[in-house]
Amino acid sequence: MGSRSNIFNFKILASYKKEVAAKRKTGKVDDFDADAFTFPLVRMLCSWFLESGEIISWLFSLMQWNCMARSINIDCIGFSNLKRGTDSIMVKYDDTKSDKAGENCTNKNLYANPHDPVVSVFLALGLYCSMEEVSLASRNSLFLKDGAPIGSAAHNFCNRLAAVIKKYSEVVANYIRCERANSHGIRKGGSRHATSGTTCPPSLVSVALRGEWSMGKVFDIYFKFGTSGDEYLGRILAGLNPNNASFACLPPHFTAPTTNIHIERAMVGMFGDVLENHPSARSILSLCLASIVFHSEFLQEIIQNSRGHPFETLFILQDESLLAELKKMVSTKESQEMKPTGIPPHVNQMIAMKEMHASLHSIIENFNTQTVNIVNAVKDAIHENDVQSGVVNLTTLEVSLIR
Hints:
Number of domains: 2
Strand content: under 5%
Helix content: 55-70%
CATH class of the largest domain: Mainly Alpha
Largest sheet: 3 strands, antiparallel
Radius of gyration: 29 Å
CATH architecture of the largest domain: Orthogonal Bundle
Number of strands: 5
Structural class: mainly alpha
Number of helices: 19
Strand order of the largest sheet: 1-2-3
């Protein structure tokens, strides 16, 4: 009886699928599936939020994109979910849709983009923590306010996303269908960008684990989390180009210890209340502060173009002498304490080729310079010998004629 029932259900399902496909051709089926956001569209979305001073929406969209997350997963992220990596910030959910116990949640490595501050999650996190310093001091959650129900922050973001898409609908329509634009498209877009943005993408296992997607019972059991794969994936989602040697860049960071008097003064001025109540966030906020200092000219440009922008109140931009001292201590160069992670072999090869190219270029320049020097040296030697031997040549004739 059971097998007959299964066959019957299968026939009904097959028939239903055929009918839906036929109706879809004539436009008689409503499809509410979200269109995947492209990286250029996400960047424009971030720039729109930045221009309007909606820093919380800017950070929320970058967190969702970089984590390839559902908006509800970003909704309840707090300081307890963040941890400092070697050159990254790691995010780990308390639970997910398919794992309510949180037993299989994995760390997701988020990276800075020193080449493009608009999409740098380090910069966005630092600015948000500074501007919301007072309210964040009294709670663990980044986005959920005290007493607010779970999901309210995600709901607010979805409303703001819908509003900005409506405002810039003519631009958005060049990338996706506006009626299919919602926050789920950011999650879909992240996975699509990671897997199709390069001919050498991260492993599908890394993508599935970051997106918290099941690969089936067998794969879920035997294909486990790989840190290197997630780090490579995190760099791609940060907007770094995996086909360029600059992919191995480091986040802006301080070369002096955080106990330095100038760094400590800036940390207290920017994040004082947050540091007092969330001391474990100090190492993360130190990276964020370095990004703020590194991109200070970008922030000042935003202030000049948008009067009354919230960035005008930033402590670090009010003290030019302190900012000048901090700039001396910020670097993106590799050191013993800071080395790039998540770098695939082909990028290392590009770095080696770039160094070889620079060396060859220097050698060629030296050869060209050397050739000119040799010719001039030979000419001078011949002339000196002719003068000493009394031989008449063009040079001596010219000299005698001038006299």
